[in-house]
Design brief:
- With 499 residues, this protein is α/β, with parallel strands linked by helices.
- It has 18 helices and 15 strands.
- It has helices spanning 2-26, 29-46, 64-79, 151-173, 186-189, 213-227, 230-236, 254-265, 280-288, 301-304, 309-320, 324-341, 348-356, 380-383, 399-410, 418-427, 432-439, 448-498; strands at 49-55, 57-58, 61-62, 85-88, 97-100, 105-110, 113-125, 136-147, 177-181, 195-199, 241-247, 268-271, 294-298, 366-372, 390-393.
- The chain has a 7-stranded mixed β-sheet with strand order 10-9-12-13-14-11-15. It has a 4-stranded antiparallel β-sheet with strand order 1-8-7-6, covered by helices on one side.
- Helix 11 packs antiparallel against helix 12 (324-341).
- It comes from Nicotiana tabacum (Common tobacco).
- This is AAA-ATPase At3g28510-like.
């Protein structure tokens, strides 16, 4: 019965097509136009749907929209009723990705519209070579079907929403990279680029970071505000970037902080070695090859290259001059002339332009981090607000930071020995790195109490050494005072004799 009905329907449609062909030949244009309009309305009444096809490749090139749609639908399929799925994993992904299998359909909703997605795979043989054993080629695509009254909304809003969500999913699932700039520019000409990379797999997080909880929370809030601040930065007319200065003694966790920030935001890291940069032009090229959503790191910037010499000389000269304004202007012109002569060198001016000049806006959502053991050695212009927006002191281990380490290394949150350790940490400066070393289990037989006692012993020895150093310093200072006092008396006595 169903077959007869379909046959009859087909016959009627064929008859209608014949009639339409006859109408086109013998009826006037105005009448044909009205009949066509009526026909379209009739067709839309019985089938009011529009279909959009998204192919995997367009003009021989990979279609980015296809991959973003695939990522979006993969997450939707987990929560929907789709039964036939595929799981795939690429070498650049953290985990496998789920996508719709051939012919599978999934229903999505957006702003009141119901949208049907379907996966298609067409297989055919490439016979251009004339061989029978040619490999089959797969043509993959997605089709989206929806009511035509939502056509403007789907094209204007929904597809944009799908692409943005797909990008976010791809970004979260990709493997992080850490880059270093090539020491030789030959790599650039061989097509290798100016950066080399490996997978970044550092396990540091803010949960494992030994730091004062209040300071840690302040940093986390700042990072979240930055990552969500695209519209705000655009509104105030600033490039979407932020600078952090990490300073403090060695072993206080500056590098670990960088790793924790990268893992928190899922950003790549560009570890910039300034000693490998020949000139300001090379620095710009390196910046141009960095991506958005990344962290540019310059560690131990005070030790990398001499960027403060000229300004120190300038300050010294200005102190010796009676008219400070005139001297500043003079030195400014001399400094500019000197920098113009020093072509082929990396200068402080070049580094400042790298951080917040016009070229710094060639990418979005970037963080620039400097680390130093000696903040006072850095040029004030280098670390002023607007360049290094947040100054984060990485200090010696205090009691709150110790508790984080004890939980991480020993899985204990309280212990009778904690009180004694708290008192010693208030008196002794010990880096989190040294505290962690004493808390680390050296073998299976050791327990938390042994490690805590090891730390107490190390703190006592450090306190003893600090007291000895203090006594020696005081003794040296006292001797210096005595010598100075004796010298003053001797000079005074000698002047009296000469009179």
């Amino acid at each position: 019965m169903g077959a007869i009905s379909l046959t009859e329907l087909g016959s009627k449609l064929a008859g209608l097509m014949f009639i339409w062909g006859t109408i086109q030949q013998f009826f006037p244009y105005t009448l044909r136009k009205r009949i066509k309009s009526f026909w379209q309305k009739l067709e839309n009444y019985f089938y009011p749907y529009v279909q959009i096809t998204i192919d995997e490749f367009t003009n021989g090139k990979s279609n980015d929209i296809y991959t973003q749609v695939s990522s979006y639908l993969g997450t939707k399929s987990i929560n929907k009723d789709a039964k036939y799925l595929k799981a795939e994993k690429s070498k650049n992904s953290k985990s496998f990705a789920v996508s719709l299998d051939e012919g599978e359909e999934i229903i999505d909703q957006f702003l009141g519209a119901k949208l049907s997605w379907r996966s298609h795979i067409e297989t055919f043989n490439e016979n251009s070579s004339g061989r029978n054993n040619s490999r089959p080629i797969e043509k993959k695509s997605y089709t989206i079907t929806f009511n035509q009254r939502y056509k403007e909304m789907v094209i204007g809003k929904y597809l944009k929403h799908v692409m943005e969500e797909g990008k976010v999913i791809e970004f979260k699932n990709r493997k992080q990279k850490i880059y270093t700039n090539n020491c030789s520019e030959d790599w650039y000409w061989y097509g290798k680029g100016m950066w080399r990379d490996i997978n970044f797999e550092h396990p540091a997080t803010f949960d494992t970071l030994a730091m004062d909880p209040k300071k840690k929370e302040e940093i986390i809030i700042d990072l979240i505000a930055f990552s969500k601040g695209k519209d705000y930065y655009s509104k105030v007319g600033k490039a979407w970037k932020r600078g952090y200065l990490l300073y403090g003694p060695p072993g206080t966790g500056k590098s670990t902080m960088i790793a924790a920030i990268a893992n928190f935001l899922n950003y790549d890291i560009y570890d910039l070695e300034l000693t490998s940069v020949k000139d300001n032009s090379g620095l710009k090229k390196l910046l141009m090859e960095t991506t958005s959503k990344s962290i540019i790191v310059i560690e131990d910037i005070d030790c990398s290259i001499d960027l403060t010499g000229k300004r120190k000389k300038k300050k010294k000269k200005s102190e010796e001059t009676v008219n400070e304004d005139q001297e500043d202007d003079s030195d400014s012109s001399k400094e500019k002339a000197s920098e113009n002569k020093e072509t082929g060198k990396l200068t402080l001016s070049g580094l400042l332009n790298f951080i917040d000049g016009i070229w710094s806006a060639c990418g979005q959502e970037r963080i620039i981090i400097f680390t130093t053991n000696h903040k006072d050695k850095l040029d004030p212009a280098l670390i002023r607000r607007g360049r290094m927006d947040m100054h984060i002191e990485m200090s010696y281990c205090k009691y709150e930071a110790f508790k984080v380490l004890a939980k991480n290394y020993l899985e204990v949150e309280t212990h009778p020995l904690f009180q004694q350790i708290q008192g010693l940490l208030e008196e002794v400066n010990m880096s989190p790195c040294d505290v962690a070393e004493n808390l680390m289990l050296k073998n299976a037989s050791e327990g938390p109490e042994i490690c805590l006692n090891n730390l107490i012993q190390a703190l006592k020895e450090a306190k003893k050494k600090a007291n000895k150093d203090k006594e020696a310093k005081e003794k040296t200072s006292l001797n210096s005072k005595k010598i100075k006092k004796f010298s003053t008396k001797f000079v005074g006595r000698l002047k009296e004799l000469l009179k």
